[in-house]
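Q: I'm writing up a methods section and want to include an example of the input and output format. Could you take the sequence below and give the corresponding predicted structure tokens, formatted cleanly so I can copy it straight into the document?
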Amino acid sequence: EIKMSMNPTMITGLLLVTGVCININTMFATAFTPSTAIHDAHITPTSQSYTNGVDTPSPFPKLAWDTPPLPQQEQQKSQTMIDDHDPFELWAKTRLGLGTGPGSNSNDVFWVGEGALYEAYTGRILAIFEGFDVGRGVQLDDNHVRQISRKIFWFRDPATGEIMTEYEGEAVQPIVYGGQMIDYRKSEEDGSITYSVEASKRSLKDALPEMKVTSRMAGPHQMMINIPVFVDIPIAEERGGGRYRAWEFYDFGVDPSFPLDRPPTVSWSRQGSVPPFTDKMNSQEAVLKFS
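A: Here is the clean output for your methods example:
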């Protein structure tokens, strides 16, 4: 059983700034900060740029990532590295620490981050959003992995930074998932990965469209993994009736060698209702961005 102790005065609730995976075996985490990467980049003048069909010197600085194409030998090496990675095994290790070697973790894996809740279509920030997910994996067979996880998030006032307890006279309640069970399966036919929510706060078993966990390599040292979620389910009459609709995308990034100075990262985007923030909105939708 996973136990979490929270300050009773903290009102927790529901996600774009930092989000990292923490391996508690090493207690090591770093945050991805684009501004630091840009400001610290080594700047050299670029040799040429293309303008109206004429090669002219570029007025823009060249950043460290503006590198020439890989030589043929390096391209072949990169392709070999891609072929060596099983996306299903890499996903199970990234998300839940399953497997052996670098990146594995027999204890709980924490994903910690922060972000913001926005009013849909205006972009007005409604709240700062912080929290974490803690999960553990169970290898049921070679092609079947089970995720057992909990998550907790809280809102902060965007102006004061204080924990929010109310919004426009309505109580702000925590977004707490005391337990979720999600299964991932690898197809024996084409190697594709699908997921199913077996148990959750909401009754989602057999209620979600079947979607695939997709992945691709971005060079030899970065795998991108995408998990789409679409929800359209009825709301019980005792809770007001109607339908609960939302979409979410989880975008993970991981170096398959799992270096300690580059932990896996995730960005979570969501659009849907978020009471009480959306109760008085015409669209009754808000946009959540967390990483």
